Amino acid sequence: MNGIDINKERLELALEAAGLDLWENDLIAGDVTRKATKIFAELGYNEEETACYIDDMFAIIHPDDIPEIKTAINDHLTGVTAQYRCEFRIRTKPGEWIWYANYGKIMDRGNHNRGQRFIGVTFNINDRKSKEDELARINRKLAEQNALLEQMNVMLQSLATSDSLTGLANRRKLMEVGASEVQRAIRLGHPLSLLIVDIDLFKRVNDAWGHINGDTVICAVADACVQCVRSNVDIVGRIGGEEFAIILPQADYAIANGLAERLRQAVAALQIPIDDTAILSCTISIGIATLTPSCTSFRHLLINADKALYLAKEDGRNCVRGK
Question: What is the model's pTM?
Fold first, then answer.
């Protein structure tokens, strides 16, 4: 046995051990000098079927993968890529799709960049693709679960900081935002005001019409507060019961008083339907407090606004007072 035959046997053994099916095309003559035949046996085809499909591989390649194969071959033949690489699915005789890969390269390129031989290997990558698909499925599931968890966190955060009846900020949220706004106002030298709003004689509404209708009145006043404040600037919240607070960043006493008076008038003009025959109206009292050198915390601001609210109630309700 000569050296060529020995090398050929060694090559065949190495290819078989590696699971590689060697193919070669003569680009000058346009002939296939070595055909990849081993994969057909692996796919379950007999010799007659192999002879049929070996010259028409695209007949058993997944239609979605054919354009990618043709593009990869053309890119290498035209010198766009240094190596031909492509992955695609081939149909087994029973009809299952199995993943294979092709790696190849044009050999013997001359001065005009024209090669004589196009040599490559085909091999099974189905196990790897299955693992990749499973990993992708797991990652998609994980992404979906993370998105759901994020939504739940947002909902929990909203529940923790929102009043369940009106949807306004709750007392906890008001205290957090208020403390932050006070510090920001002091740091930047900006004015800051706070309104405490109380529905006048609300107990009478509950006693006469019931708590459900009382909730309707609370929601109507809450909506009026939201409508009267500056959008995306002021913070409206429900302290509890029939009492609300409105934080007014960059608002001095004059601005706060003007807004409070508009709100008082808007609530007084409300016609709140209770049922098909009853319409309720109500009024509010409002206390105003503004940040001053002697009032340097949100707690102090709340105390001052509460004192002003009591002045409004003492003066007959349905009015605005400042402290």
Answer: 0.57
